[in-house]
Protein backbone atom coordinates (compact mmCIF):
# COMPACT_ATOMS: atom_id res chain seq x y z
CA UNK A 1 0.00 0.00 0.00
CA UNK A 2 2.86 2.36 0.71
CA UNK A 3 4.47 1.36 -2.57
CA UNK A 4 2.14 3.41 -4.72
CA UNK A 5 3.31 6.65 -3.16
CA UNK A 6 6.94 5.70 -3.14
CA UNK A 7 6.92 4.88 -6.83
CA UNK A 8 5.20 8.11 -7.71
CA UNK A 9 7.82 10.17 -5.91
CA UNK A 10 11.39 9.23 -6.87
CA UNK A 11 12.77 12.10 -4.74
CA UNK A 12 12.18 10.01 -1.65
CA UNK A 13 15.21 7.82 -2.14
CA UNK A 14 17.58 10.76 -2.39
CA UNK A 15 16.61 12.61 0.77
CA UNK A 16 16.53 10.75 4.07
CA UNK A 17 13.34 8.77 4.26
CA UNK A 18 11.23 9.56 7.30
CA UNK A 19 8.61 6.93 7.98
CA UNK A 20 5.41 8.39 9.36
CA UNK A 21 5.05 5.54 11.83
CA UNK A 22 8.45 6.45 13.29
CA UNK A 23 7.56 10.09 13.41
CA UNK A 24 4.26 9.52 15.21
CA UNK A 25 6.06 7.33 17.74
CA UNK A 26 8.80 9.88 18.34
CA UNK A 27 6.32 12.70 18.75
CA UNK A 28 4.30 10.71 21.24
CA UNK A 29 7.38 10.00 23.39
CA UNK A 30 8.50 13.62 23.31
CA UNK A 31 5.05 14.88 24.24
CA UNK A 32 4.83 12.47 27.17
CA UNK A 33 8.26 13.63 28.35
CA UNK A 34 7.16 17.24 28.20
CA UNK A 35 4.03 16.57 30.24
CA UNK A 36 6.31 14.88 32.77
CA UNK A 37 8.64 17.91 32.87
CA UNK A 38 5.72 20.25 33.50
CA UNK A 39 4.42 18.03 36.25
CA UNK A 40 7.78 17.71 38.04
CA UNK A 41 8.19 21.44 37.76
CA UNK A 42 4.79 21.89 39.36
CA UNK A 43 5.76 19.69 42.33
CA UNK A 44 9.10 21.46 42.82
CA UNK A 45 7.42 24.83 42.67
CA UNK A 46 4.85 23.83 45.26
CA UNK A 47 7.58 22.43 47.47
CA UNK A 48 9.85 25.48 47.31
CA UNK A 49 6.94 27.78 48.01
CA UNK A 50 5.74 25.76 50.95
CA UNK A 51 9.30 25.79 52.35
CA UNK A 52 9.41 29.53 52.02
CA UNK A 53 6.01 30.16 53.56
CA UNK A 54 5.51 27.24 55.93
CA UNK A 55 6.08 23.53 55.17
CA UNK A 56 2.66 22.82 56.67
CA UNK A 57 0.99 24.62 53.78
CA UNK A 58 2.39 22.30 51.09
CA UNK A 59 -0.67 20.10 50.76
CA UNK A 60 -3.16 22.88 51.23
CA UNK A 61 -1.56 24.91 48.46
CA UNK A 62 -1.45 21.93 46.11
CA UNK A 63 -5.01 20.82 46.80
CA UNK A 64 -6.43 24.30 46.47
CA UNK A 65 -4.65 24.96 43.18
CA UNK A 66 -5.65 21.58 41.78
CA UNK A 67 -9.34 21.86 42.63
CA UNK A 68 -9.55 25.43 41.46
CA UNK A 69 -7.97 24.90 38.06
CA UNK A 70 -9.66 21.53 37.48
CA UNK A 71 -13.17 22.89 37.93
CA UNK A 72 -12.30 25.84 35.77
CA UNK A 73 -11.00 23.69 32.93
CA UNK A 74 -13.49 20.79 33.04
CA UNK A 75 -16.30 23.16 32.15
CA UNK A 76 -14.28 24.36 29.17
CA UNK A 77 -13.33 20.82 28.24
CA UNK A 78 -16.90 19.58 27.94
CA UNK A 79 -17.97 22.58 25.91
CA UNK A 80 -14.75 23.02 23.92
CA UNK A 81 -16.45 22.41 20.55
CA UNK A 82 -19.36 24.78 21.26
CA UNK A 83 -17.09 27.53 22.60
CA UNK A 84 -14.72 27.24 19.65
CA UNK A 85 -17.51 27.28 17.06
CA UNK A 86 -19.36 30.16 18.71
CA UNK A 87 -16.25 32.29 19.05
CA UNK A 88 -15.61 32.24 15.28
CA UNK A 89 -19.33 32.35 14.40
CA UNK A 90 -19.13 29.14 12.35
CA UNK A 91 -22.16 27.84 10.48
CA UNK A 92 -22.95 24.16 9.76
CA UNK A 93 -21.61 23.13 6.34
CA UNK A 94 -24.28 22.45 3.72
CA UNK A 95 -24.36 19.02 2.09
CA UNK A 96 -25.06 20.43 -1.36
CA UNK A 97 -23.03 23.63 -1.29
CA UNK A 98 -19.94 22.16 0.41
CA UNK A 99 -20.16 18.72 -1.16
CA UNK A 100 -16.41 18.47 -1.76
CA UNK A 101 -15.81 19.18 1.95
CA UNK A 102 -18.23 16.39 2.89
CA UNK A 103 -16.65 13.95 0.42
CA UNK A 104 -13.15 14.69 1.74
CA UNK A 105 -14.14 14.18 5.36
CA UNK A 106 -16.13 11.03 4.56
CA UNK A 107 -13.10 9.60 2.76
CA UNK A 108 -10.69 10.38 5.59
CA UNK A 109 -13.20 9.13 8.15
CA UNK A 110 -13.22 5.78 6.31
CA UNK A 111 -9.42 5.77 5.97
CA UNK A 112 -8.94 6.48 9.69
CA UNK A 113 -11.82 4.39 11.03
CA UNK A 114 -13.01 7.42 13.03
CA UNK A 115 -16.69 8.37 13.26
CA UNK A 116 -17.82 11.19 10.99
CA UNK A 117 -17.33 14.55 12.75
CA UNK A 118 -19.81 17.43 12.45
CA UNK A 119 -18.75 19.91 9.77
CA UNK A 120 -18.75 23.71 9.97
CA UNK A 121 -17.69 26.60 7.79
CA UNK A 122 -16.54 29.98 9.04
CA UNK A 123 -16.40 33.22 7.08
CA UNK A 124 -12.78 34.26 6.47
CA UNK A 125 -10.61 35.25 3.52
CA UNK A 126 -7.65 33.34 4.92
CA UNK A 127 -7.15 29.61 4.25
CA UNK A 128 -7.43 27.86 7.59
CA UNK A 129 -9.18 25.07 9.46
CA UNK A 130 -9.53 23.75 12.99
CA UNK A 131 -10.84 20.74 14.88
CA UNK A 132 -12.36 20.63 18.33
CA UNK A 133 -14.25 18.33 20.67
CA UNK A 134 -13.22 16.22 23.63
CA UNK A 135 -13.28 12.83 21.84
CA UNK A 136 -13.84 11.44 18.32
CA UNK A 137 -17.57 10.94 19.04
CA UNK A 138 -18.03 14.63 19.82
CA UNK A 139 -15.65 16.11 17.27
CA UNK A 140 -16.17 19.01 14.90
CA UNK A 141 -14.11 20.20 11.95
CA UNK A 142 -14.40 23.77 10.75
CA UNK A 143 -12.83 25.23 7.61
CA UNK A 144 -12.78 28.82 6.40
CA UNK A 145 -14.70 29.86 3.29
CA UNK A 146 -11.34 30.70 1.67
CA UNK A 147 -10.05 27.19 2.31
CA UNK A 148 -13.11 25.79 0.56
CA UNK A 149 -12.77 28.13 -2.42
CA UNK A 150 -9.00 28.09 -2.94
CA UNK A 151 -7.87 24.55 -2.17
CA UNK A 152 -8.26 21.75 -4.69
CA UNK A 153 -9.47 18.30 -3.76
CA UNK A 154 -6.10 16.79 -2.75
CA UNK A 155 -5.14 19.87 -0.75
CA UNK A 156 -8.46 20.01 1.07
CA UNK A 157 -8.14 16.30 1.81
CA UNK A 158 -4.65 16.91 3.24
CA UNK A 159 -5.99 19.66 5.50
CA UNK A 160 -8.96 17.54 6.58
CA UNK A 161 -6.61 14.62 7.31
CA UNK A 162 -4.47 16.91 9.48
CA UNK A 163 -7.55 17.94 11.47
CA UNK A 164 -8.79 14.35 11.73
CA UNK A 165 -5.35 13.46 13.13
CA UNK A 166 -5.80 16.00 15.91
CA UNK A 167 -9.04 14.16 16.70
CA UNK A 168 -7.45 10.70 16.37
CA UNK A 169 -4.47 11.65 18.57
CA UNK A 170 -6.78 13.11 21.25
CA UNK A 171 -4.91 16.39 20.89
CA UNK A 172 -7.79 18.46 22.22
CA UNK A 173 -7.81 16.39 25.39
CA UNK A 174 -4.02 16.53 25.56
CA UNK A 175 -3.87 20.28 25.13
CA UNK A 176 -6.57 20.70 27.76
CA UNK A 177 -4.44 18.64 30.15
CA UNK A 178 -1.42 20.86 29.57
CA UNK A 179 -3.63 23.91 29.99
CA UNK A 180 -4.67 22.56 33.40
CA UNK A 181 -1.07 22.08 34.48
CA UNK A 182 0.06 25.46 33.20
CA UNK A 183 -2.97 27.03 34.86
CA UNK A 184 -2.20 25.33 38.17
CA UNK A 185 1.38 26.53 38.11
CA UNK A 186 0.31 30.10 37.43
CA UNK A 187 -2.26 29.99 40.21
CA UNK A 188 0.24 28.68 42.74
CA UNK A 189 2.77 31.30 41.73
CA UNK A 190 0.16 34.02 42.13
CA UNK A 191 -0.97 32.62 45.47
CA UNK A 192 2.59 32.65 46.75
CA UNK A 193 3.42 36.16 45.61
CA UNK A 194 0.27 37.48 47.23
CA UNK A 195 0.66 35.51 50.43
CA UNK A 196 4.10 37.02 51.01
CA UNK A 197 2.47 40.21 52.26
CA UNK A 198 0.75 38.37 55.08
CA UNK A 199 3.25 35.69 56.05
CA UNK A 200 6.17 38.07 56.32
CA UNK A 201 4.69 40.53 58.76
CA UNK A 202 3.85 38.26 61.68
CA UNK A 203 7.12 36.46 62.18
CA UNK A 204 9.93 38.50 60.83
CA UNK A 205 12.56 37.60 63.41
CA UNK A 206 12.32 33.80 63.45
CA UNK A 207 15.40 32.35 61.69
CA UNK A 208 15.28 35.37 59.45
CA UNK A 209 18.35 34.71 57.29
CA UNK A 210 17.42 31.23 56.07
CA UNK A 211 13.84 32.33 55.68
CA UNK A 212 14.88 35.30 53.55
CA UNK A 213 16.88 33.12 51.17
CA UNK A 214 14.03 30.67 50.81
CA UNK A 215 11.59 33.48 50.15
CA UNK A 216 13.91 34.96 47.53
CA UNK A 217 14.21 31.55 45.90
CA UNK A 218 10.45 31.15 46.03
CA UNK A 219 9.88 34.53 44.41
CA UNK A 220 12.30 33.65 41.63
CA UNK A 221 10.54 30.35 41.10
CA UNK A 222 7.11 31.91 41.19
CA UNK A 223 8.10 34.40 38.51
CA UNK A 224 9.93 31.96 36.26
CA UNK A 225 7.64 28.93 36.62
CA UNK A 226 4.62 30.24 34.68
CA UNK A 227 6.89 31.45 31.87
CA UNK A 228 8.72 28.12 31.63
CA UNK A 229 5.43 26.22 31.80
CA UNK A 230 4.04 28.36 28.98
CA UNK A 231 7.12 27.73 26.83
CA UNK A 232 6.91 23.99 27.41
CA UNK A 233 3.20 23.86 26.62
CA UNK A 234 3.81 25.78 23.40
CA UNK A 235 6.58 23.36 22.52
CA UNK A 236 4.07 20.54 23.01
CA UNK A 237 1.62 22.35 20.77
CA UNK A 238 4.25 22.56 18.02
CA UNK A 239 5.16 18.89 18.44
CA UNK A 240 1.48 18.03 18.10
CA UNK A 241 1.33 19.91 14.82
CA UNK A 242 4.17 17.82 13.40
CA UNK A 243 2.48 14.69 14.75
CA UNK A 244 -0.80 15.68 13.10
CA UNK A 245 0.98 16.31 9.80
CA UNK A 246 2.52 12.83 10.00
CA UNK A 247 -0.72 11.08 10.98
CA UNK A 248 -2.58 13.01 8.30
CA UNK A 249 -0.23 11.58 5.69
CA UNK A 250 -0.86 8.14 7.13
CA UNK A 251 -4.54 8.64 6.26
CA UNK A 252 -4.16 10.12 2.78
CA UNK A 253 -0.88 8.39 1.79
CA UNK A 254 -0.29 11.53 -0.23
CA UNK A 255 2.13 14.04 1.42
CA UNK A 256 2.02 16.59 -1.47
CA UNK A 257 -1.67 17.27 -0.71
CA UNK A 258 -1.01 18.89 2.66
CA UNK A 259 2.35 20.30 1.54
CA UNK A 260 0.68 22.17 -1.35
CA UNK A 261 -2.08 23.40 0.95
CA UNK A 262 0.55 24.78 3.35
CA UNK A 263 2.33 26.45 0.42
CA UNK A 264 -0.93 28.13 -0.57
CA UNK A 265 -1.51 29.23 3.02
CA UNK A 266 1.97 30.72 3.11
CA UNK A 267 1.56 32.54 -0.20
CA UNK A 268 -1.87 33.93 0.52
CA UNK A 269 -1.24 35.12 4.04
CA UNK A 270 -3.65 38.03 4.66
CA UNK A 271 -2.37 40.99 6.71
CA UNK A 272 -4.07 41.40 10.10
CA UNK A 273 -5.81 44.65 9.12
CA UNK A 274 -7.51 43.18 6.03
CA UNK A 275 -9.00 40.15 7.74
CA UNK A 276 -12.74 39.66 7.46
CA UNK A 277 -12.95 38.16 10.89
CA UNK A 278 -10.79 38.44 13.95
CA UNK A 279 -9.89 35.29 15.82
CA UNK A 280 -9.39 35.19 19.57
CA UNK A 281 -5.73 34.66 20.57
CA UNK A 282 -6.62 31.66 22.70
CA UNK A 283 -8.02 29.89 19.62
CA UNK A 284 -4.66 29.92 17.83
CA UNK A 285 -3.42 26.45 18.88
CA UNK A 286 -6.52 24.88 17.33
CA UNK A 287 -5.93 26.03 13.77
CA UNK A 288 -3.92 24.26 11.09
CA UNK A 289 -1.78 27.36 10.62
CA UNK A 290 -1.29 30.14 13.13
CA UNK A 291 -3.91 32.82 12.36
CA UNK A 292 -1.56 35.47 13.78
CA UNK A 293 1.65 36.83 12.42
CA UNK A 294 4.31 34.38 11.36
CA UNK A 295 7.45 36.51 11.36
CA UNK A 296 8.88 35.15 14.58
CA UNK A 297 8.75 31.42 15.00
CA UNK A 298 10.41 30.17 18.10
CA UNK A 299 9.75 29.61 21.76
CA UNK A 300 6.54 31.62 21.88
CA UNK A 301 4.64 30.39 18.83
CA UNK A 302 1.85 27.82 18.86
CA UNK A 303 2.80 26.43 15.44
CA UNK A 304 6.10 25.29 13.95
CA UNK A 305 7.61 27.21 11.05
CA UNK A 306 5.50 26.55 7.94
CA UNK A 307 8.57 26.04 5.71
CA UNK A 308 9.86 23.43 8.11
CA UNK A 309 6.52 21.61 7.97
CA UNK A 310 6.51 21.67 4.15
CA UNK A 311 10.10 20.43 4.17
CA UNK A 312 9.25 17.53 6.49
CA UNK A 313 6.22 16.60 4.38
CA UNK A 314 8.30 16.58 1.23
CA UNK A 315 10.76 14.19 2.84
CA UNK A 316 8.04 11.66 3.71
CA UNK B 1 4.74 -12.95 52.02
CA UNK B 2 5.60 -15.71 49.55
CA UNK B 3 1.91 -16.41 49.15
CA UNK B 4 1.25 -12.79 48.22
CA UNK B 5 4.01 -12.84 45.63
CA UNK B 6 2.48 -15.98 44.08
CA UNK B 7 -0.96 -14.37 44.08
CA UNK B 8 0.52 -11.25 42.51
CA UNK B 9 2.25 -13.18 39.75
CA UNK B 10 -0.89 -15.17 38.97
CA UNK B 11 -2.94 -11.97 38.85
CA UNK B 12 -0.39 -10.41 36.51
CA UNK B 13 -0.49 -13.43 34.18
CA UNK B 14 -4.29 -13.37 34.22
CA UNK B 15 -4.27 -9.68 33.30
CA UNK B 16 -1.96 -10.44 30.38
CA UNK B 17 -4.21 -13.27 29.19
CA UNK B 18 -7.33 -11.14 29.37
CA UNK B 19 -5.61 -8.12 27.87
CA UNK B 20 -4.30 -9.99 24.86
CA UNK B 21 -7.56 -11.82 24.31
CA UNK B 22 -9.46 -8.52 24.20
CA UNK B 23 -6.81 -6.95 22.00
CA UNK B 24 -7.18 -9.75 19.45
CA UNK B 25 -10.97 -9.41 19.48
CA UNK B 26 -10.81 -5.64 19.08
CA UNK B 27 -8.42 -5.90 16.16
CA UNK B 28 -10.40 -8.67 14.47
CA UNK B 29 -13.59 -6.66 14.84
CA UNK B 30 -11.84 -3.70 13.30
CA UNK B 31 -10.87 -5.84 10.32
CA UNK B 32 -14.45 -7.11 9.91
CA UNK B 33 -15.77 -3.61 10.23
CA UNK B 34 -13.40 -2.21 7.61
CA UNK B 35 -14.29 -5.06 5.30
CA UNK B 36 -17.98 -4.23 5.58
CA UNK B 37 -17.09 -0.59 4.93
CA UNK B 38 -15.68 -1.63 1.54
CA UNK B 39 -18.90 -3.54 0.94
CA UNK B 40 -21.01 -0.48 1.78
CA UNK B 41 -19.10 1.67 -0.70
CA UNK B 42 -19.33 -0.94 -3.46
CA UNK B 43 -23.08 -1.16 -2.90
CA UNK B 44 -23.42 2.61 -3.04
CA UNK B 45 -21.67 2.59 -6.39
CA UNK B 46 -23.98 -0.07 -7.78
CA UNK B 47 -27.01 1.89 -6.58
CA UNK B 48 -25.90 4.86 -8.64
CA UNK B 49 -25.66 2.85 -11.86
CA UNK B 50 -29.39 2.90 -12.86
CA UNK B 51 -29.47 6.67 -12.35
CA UNK B 52 -26.36 7.09 -14.46
CA UNK B 53 -27.76 4.89 -17.22
CA UNK B 54 -30.97 6.95 -17.25
CA UNK B 55 -29.18 10.26 -17.59
CA UNK B 56 -26.79 8.90 -20.22
CA UNK B 57 -29.34 6.91 -22.27
CA UNK B 58 -30.76 9.87 -24.18
CA UNK B 59 -27.37 11.11 -25.36
CA UNK B 60 -25.38 7.96 -26.01
CA UNK B 61 -27.78 6.04 -28.21
CA UNK B 62 -25.01 4.70 -30.42
CA UNK B 63 -22.86 3.32 -27.61
CA UNK B 64 -24.91 0.17 -27.15
CA UNK B 65 -21.99 -2.14 -26.38
CA UNK B 66 -20.64 -0.12 -23.49
CA UNK B 67 -24.15 0.34 -22.09
CA UNK B 68 -24.74 -3.39 -22.01
CA UNK B 69 -21.27 -3.91 -20.54
CA UNK B 70 -22.17 -1.69 -17.58
CA UNK B 71 -25.56 -3.34 -17.16
CA UNK B 72 -23.99 -6.80 -17.23
CA UNK B 73 -21.27 -5.78 -14.77
CA UNK B 74 -23.96 -4.48 -12.45
CA UNK B 75 -25.91 -7.73 -12.70
CA UNK B 76 -22.76 -9.74 -12.10
CA UNK B 77 -22.03 -7.72 -8.97
CA UNK B 78 -25.57 -8.19 -7.67
CA UNK B 79 -25.12 -11.95 -8.08
CA UNK B 80 -21.82 -12.05 -6.22
CA UNK B 81 -21.99 -13.96 -2.94
CA UNK B 82 -18.55 -13.94 -1.31
CA UNK B 83 -16.44 -10.87 -0.60
CA UNK B 84 -13.82 -12.01 -3.14
CA UNK B 85 -16.44 -12.20 -5.88
CA UNK B 86 -17.81 -8.82 -4.90
CA UNK B 87 -14.37 -7.23 -5.10
CA UNK B 88 -13.69 -8.79 -8.49
CA UNK B 89 -17.08 -7.82 -9.92
CA UNK B 90 -16.84 -4.41 -8.32
CA UNK B 91 -13.54 -3.84 -10.11
CA UNK B 92 -15.12 -4.89 -13.43
CA UNK B 93 -18.01 -2.52 -12.87
CA UNK B 94 -15.60 0.27 -12.02
CA UNK B 95 -13.73 -0.42 -15.26
CA UNK B 96 -16.94 -0.29 -17.31
CA UNK B 97 -18.02 2.92 -15.58
CA UNK B 98 -14.65 4.49 -16.34
CA UNK B 99 -15.03 3.84 -20.04
CA UNK B 100 -18.56 5.22 -20.08
CA UNK B 101 -17.38 8.38 -18.31
CA UNK B 102 -14.48 8.68 -20.75
CA UNK B 103 -16.89 8.34 -23.69
CA UNK B 104 -19.07 11.05 -22.19
CA UNK B 105 -16.26 13.48 -23.01
CA UNK B 106 -17.44 13.28 -26.63
CA UNK B 107 -20.92 14.54 -25.77
CA UNK B 108 -20.85 18.24 -24.83
CA UNK B 109 -24.58 18.32 -24.07
CA UNK B 110 -24.19 15.42 -21.67
CA UNK B 111 -21.27 17.11 -19.95
CA UNK B 112 -23.46 20.16 -19.41
CA UNK B 113 -26.20 18.05 -17.85
CA UNK B 114 -26.57 18.93 -14.16
CA UNK B 115 -27.71 15.46 -13.17
CA UNK B 116 -24.88 13.76 -15.02
CA UNK B 117 -22.27 16.06 -13.46
CA UNK B 118 -23.63 15.29 -10.04
CA UNK B 119 -23.43 11.53 -10.68
CA UNK B 120 -19.92 11.87 -12.05
CA UNK B 121 -18.80 13.61 -8.87
CA UNK B 122 -20.54 11.05 -6.69
CA UNK B 123 -18.88 8.18 -8.57
CA UNK B 124 -15.41 9.63 -8.28
CA UNK B 125 -15.99 10.32 -4.56
CA UNK B 126 -17.06 6.71 -4.12
CA UNK B 127 -13.96 5.54 -5.96
CA UNK B 128 -11.85 7.49 -3.46
CA UNK B 129 -13.83 6.02 -0.59
CA UNK B 130 -13.38 2.47 -1.87
CA UNK B 131 -9.63 3.13 -2.00
CA UNK B 132 -9.66 4.55 1.53
CA UNK B 133 -11.76 1.66 2.82
CA UNK B 134 -9.25 -0.80 1.33
CA UNK B 135 -6.39 1.14 2.87
CA UNK B 136 -8.07 1.02 6.27
CA UNK B 137 -8.67 -2.69 5.84
CA UNK B 138 -4.98 -3.25 5.15
CA UNK B 139 -4.00 -0.96 8.03
CA UNK B 140 -6.23 -2.99 10.34
CA UNK B 141 -4.61 -6.19 9.13
CA UNK B 142 -1.19 -4.62 9.66
CA UNK B 143 -1.88 -3.85 13.33
CA UNK B 144 -3.42 -7.30 13.83
CA UNK B 145 -0.44 -9.01 12.18
CA UNK B 146 2.01 -6.92 14.17
CA UNK B 147 0.52 -8.11 17.43
CA UNK B 148 0.35 -11.75 16.33
CA UNK B 149 3.97 -11.80 15.16
CA UNK B 150 5.74 -9.67 17.76
CA UNK B 151 6.85 -10.80 21.18
CA UNK B 152 5.08 -11.41 23.57
CA UNK B 153 1.96 -11.28 21.39
CA UNK B 154 3.20 -14.23 19.36
CA UNK B 155 2.91 -16.48 22.45
CA UNK B 156 -0.69 -15.49 23.12
CA UNK B 157 -1.49 -15.72 19.41
CA UNK B 158 -0.43 -19.37 19.39
CA UNK B 159 -2.37 -20.06 22.61
CA UNK B 160 -5.56 -18.52 21.21
CA UNK B 161 -4.91 -19.93 17.74
CA UNK B 162 -4.73 -16.54 16.02
CA UNK B 163 -2.90 -16.61 12.72
CA UNK B 164 -1.61 -13.67 10.69
CA UNK B 165 -4.06 -12.59 7.98
CA UNK B 166 -3.43 -11.85 4.34
CA UNK B 167 -3.48 -8.34 2.89
CA UNK B 168 -5.98 -7.22 0.36
CA UNK B 169 -4.24 -7.37 -3.01
CA UNK B 170 -5.03 -4.52 -5.34
CA UNK B 171 -4.85 -5.09 -9.11
CA UNK B 172 -1.94 -3.17 -10.64
CA UNK B 173 -3.90 -0.82 -12.90
CA UNK B 174 -6.01 0.48 -10.02
CA UNK B 175 -3.03 1.67 -8.05
CA UNK B 176 -2.73 5.12 -9.58
CA UNK B 177 -3.98 8.04 -7.51
CA UNK B 178 -7.25 9.20 -9.08
CA UNK B 179 -6.89 12.76 -10.29
CA UNK B 180 -10.34 14.30 -10.57
CA UNK B 181 -10.76 18.03 -10.18
CA UNK B 182 -14.14 19.46 -9.35
Number of domains of chain A: 1
Order of H and E elements of chain B: HHHHHH
Which structural class fits the helix and strand makeup of chain B? Answer: mainly alpha
Instruction: Return the CATH class of chain B.
Output: Mainly Alpha
Whole-number count of domains of chain B? 1
Largest sheet of chain A: 4 strands, mixed
**Total number of beta strands of chain A:** 4
Query: What can be said about the biggest beta sheet of chain B?
Result: none
Could you give the distance between the termini of chain A? Answer: 15 Å
Q: Which sequence of strands runs across the widest sheet of chain A?
A: 1-2-4-3
Could you name the ranges of chain B where pLDDT drops below 50 across 5 or more consecutive residues? 175-182
What is CATH's topology name of chain B?
Answer: de novo design (two linked rop proteins)
Query: How would you name the CATH homologous superfamily of chain B?
Result: LemA-like domain
Instruction: Please tell me how large the radius of gyration of chain A is.
Output: 23 Å
Oligomer: heterodimer
Distance, first to last CA of chain B: 72 Å
Q: How much strand of chain A?
A: 5-15%
What's the rounded overall pLDDT mean of chain A?
76
Shape of chain A: elongated
Roughly what percent helix of chain B? Answer: over 70%
Amino acid sequence: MENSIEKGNPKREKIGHLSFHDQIQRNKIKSALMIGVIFIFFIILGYVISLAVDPGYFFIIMIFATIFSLTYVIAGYYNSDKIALASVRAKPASKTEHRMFYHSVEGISIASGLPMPRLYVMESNEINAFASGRNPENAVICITTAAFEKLNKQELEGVVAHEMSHIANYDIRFMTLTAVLVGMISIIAQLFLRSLWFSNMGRGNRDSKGQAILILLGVLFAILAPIVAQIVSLAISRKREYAADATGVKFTRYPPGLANALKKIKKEHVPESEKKQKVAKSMAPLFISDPFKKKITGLFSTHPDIDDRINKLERM
Amino acid sequence: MVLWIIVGVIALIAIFFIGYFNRFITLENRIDNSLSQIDVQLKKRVDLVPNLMNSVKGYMKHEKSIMTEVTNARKAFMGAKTMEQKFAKGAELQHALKSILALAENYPQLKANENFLHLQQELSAIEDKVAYARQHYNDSILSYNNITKRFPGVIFASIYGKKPKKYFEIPKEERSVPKVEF
